[in-house]
């Protein structure tokens, strides 16, 4: 494992250093003293686990394509912005607009998130182990959002496609427009329990409901459907 001291590097130099370590074949990279730096892990491509011993600022893991990024503290707004593939694990809380426009990969937030989590998602998984704010899943076009705690008002507002699983008993009173609840299907429950097992999340899919866009009374949309291939190291 290689260790980088973020406090001794300029913001741009930190990401360059991480990329250089990955290019040289380092599989484990530890970033110490991050000081809530913005843009950490942006546009990283390849195979490696980057562990950040502390909190980060805005745009953590933006455009991530392959690596596993573990944040031991909190993250600011826009975590995983336009993420393509890989993993982001936030051990504490994430700010607003977590996982905006993600295309693939998995983001797990062990704590809470701010509002608009999963805004405009196109693919991938966002798992929020705590609670989330207003407009979770707004205008999603694909992917899956899972919330174990409470949700805010406007849940799933204007979803086009995608899926939201929640177990908040008051969730039906907080729905946005053009969405509806259904019992979780057997296939959805099986997939969800596999996700819980993979990330050591203490929950059972049978406790959840599935939120989907309404299938009638809506306009028809042609959506962007990219083909994502696994990045080469």
UniProtKB/TrEMBL annotation:
InterPro entries the record matches: Glu_synth_asu_C, Glu_synth_asu_C_sf
Pfam families per UniProt: GXGXG
Gene3D superfamilies: Glutamate synthase, alpha subunit, C-terminal domain
The organism's place on the tree of life at top rank: Bacteria
Domain Glutamate synthase alpha subunit C-terminal: 44-181
PANTHER family (alphabetical): GLUTAMATE SYNTHASE ALPHA SUBUNIT C-TERMINAL DOMAIN-CONTAINING PROTEIN, TUNGSTEN FORMYLMETHANOFURAN DEHYDROGENASE, SUBUNIT C (FWDC)
The name this protein goes by in its record: Glutamate synthase
